[in-house]
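task queued by scheduler; priority normal; single chain, no ligands, no partner chains; default sampling; output format set to structure tokens
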Amino acid sequence: MKTELHTAASRGHVKFDWLDTYHYFSFGQYHNPARVHFGALRVINDDHIDAGMGFGKHPHDNMEIVTIPLEGDLHHNDSTGRDEIIRANDVQIMSAGSGIYHSEYNANNDKPVKLFQIWVFPKEKNIKPRYEQLTFSAADRVNKFQTVVAPDNDNAVWINQDAWFSLGDFDANQTQTYNLHKSGGGVYLIVVNGQIKIGEQELGARDAIAISETDSFVFTAKAKSSLLLIEVPMQW
């Protein structure tokens, strides 16, 4: 098994008037040639958007864009006519495909919105742009993984890639095994909150670990922990 630790402190960080963002991979003003992508995983941004602020309408193409709000409400509008509010426990995906414009704003004028936005290279290019959003029950991820994004699961949002996103909330001293869905894939695991141990490595809040060259791995929660796990093909 091959692992690479990406600590929270090693992430790229950019602070604008209304946006405080941390980048796990090269993005915008942050460029790290050692962290451009992990397999088909291209971007993970940990965004904090101030009240009433956000990103004006801008274009994307040929990228699978997943948004996972942690706190607050995000207002999404796009050129397909979708106009939605995305809240904590929602997961949204936008297949940019042949081309789409969208905007994202904090839907509230009195509190911030905090979210992960994740980009994955698509399996098939130039598909018709599409949008999907589902609400998930937090009770269904207590001491187990809840699949929220998948190419083969009707209970998750669909992605145009052999990729699986899972959320899990684990009590202290829980030991779990994760089995990859597809041979040759890799897993990027983020500790959203808490502390876990994988092998001899301990990870705290917002630390991440890239895992490859294995079909499974074991971790132990050293404290009550929330995890985001992203499985992607290493070659696509």
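post-processing summary
- The chain has a mean pLDDT of 97.
- The two ends are 20 Å apart (CA to CA).
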